[in-house]
Amino acid sequence: MSFPVHRPRRLRRSEALRQMVRETDLSPSDLIYPLFVVEGKGVRRPIAAMPGVFNLSIDQAVVEARQAKSLGVPSVILFGIPDHKDAIASGATDENGVVQKAIREIKSAAPDLQVVADVCLCEYTDHGHCGVVSGQQVRNDETLPLLAQMAVTCARAGADLIAPSDMMDGRIGALRKALDEAHFDDLPIMSYAAKYASGFYGPFREAAQSTPQFGDRRGYQMDPANVREALKEVALDLEEGADLVMVKPALAYLDVIAKVKAACDVPVAAYNVSGEYSMVKAAAQNGWVDYTRVMMEVLTSIKRAGADLILTYHALDAAKLL
Ligand code: PBG
Hints:
The protein is an alpha/beta fold. The protein has a single domain (23-321), classed as TIM Barrel, CATH 3.20.20.70. It has helices spanning 15-20, 58-70, 98-109, 140-157, 171-181, 202-208, 228-240, 254-263, 274-285, 291-305, 315-321, and strands at residues 31-38, 44-46, 54-57, 75-81, 114-119, 132-134, 137-139, 161-164, 190-195, 244-248, 268-272, 309-312. The strands form two sheets. Strands 1, 2, 3, 4, 5, 8, 9, 10, 11 and 12 form a ten-stranded mixed sheet that branches. The protein has a two-stranded antiparallel ribbon with strand order 6-7. Helix 2 (58-70) packs across helix 3 (98-109) and helix 3 (98-109) packs parallel to helix 4. The chain is globular. The protein starts with 14 loop residues before the first helix and ends with a helix. 47% of the residues are buried. The model has no long low-confidence stretch (mean pLDDT 97). The site of ligand PBG has 11 residues, from helix 6. Ligand PBG binds next to helix 6.
């Protein structure tokens, strides 16, 4: 039976009806707000490629985190950008590193806010790779103890969730073991399980000053053409003890989000990355698209695809509308 019995437009007649039958809703509590933390005081340095996003000193990150909380966004994820970078990412594993200090201060200023620690070496290495390097090679197994040490220092600083984004093999198991040994057996891990080697990270690398000085990340991040491999990465991370899994980027990978959601029974997060944010901002600044409308459409699509949580630079803008 079809037209004229069926008229799908009947349920679109008013906003009240549309709201009643809406299949996907977005809430500020779905969102995780990323912050880029630098050394210093009173620093609020705009990131040219990401209008509305800043490098923040810890005191300013505290202000931003409090604002997130007051808008109903329950979590922030922190990226630390140290003054000093070196070959072994010393800043990443230092109890008094910039991210460890930021975790401590945000947790003491806003104890109810969830603080997620991104665990990766690329913001801390002078060569910009996510692991330790020998010659032109990013060494997998030699990187694991450093990641584990970073995770433990972030845990000691008070992080609520550990989120490794480096894409080394075996890192979830290594982190789980190190955290358990340090008596953080109840601290969850959100794995960047399916993280692709993506051009959409361009603006982030300006924000974190983490562009690789040689080569690229294709030797450890995933090939954008693959989806079955994403399921394998997710399965391995779950086996190693991941509590949540993430797909990254989000927008060009909605099919991956949907498949990961169908394949596992843990919460799925998706990272609406820097390039996705900057494209919307740039088009809106040119008057080519309506910022608010396109932002909400993007976030809704990520949720509709199956994401339970969305990491997004739009978090505060979106929360203000929700
Ligand atoms: C690596 C990391 C990256 C992002 C999050 N964690 C960059 C990369 O892999 O090059 C990208 C996030 C974004 O683009 O918003 N530590």
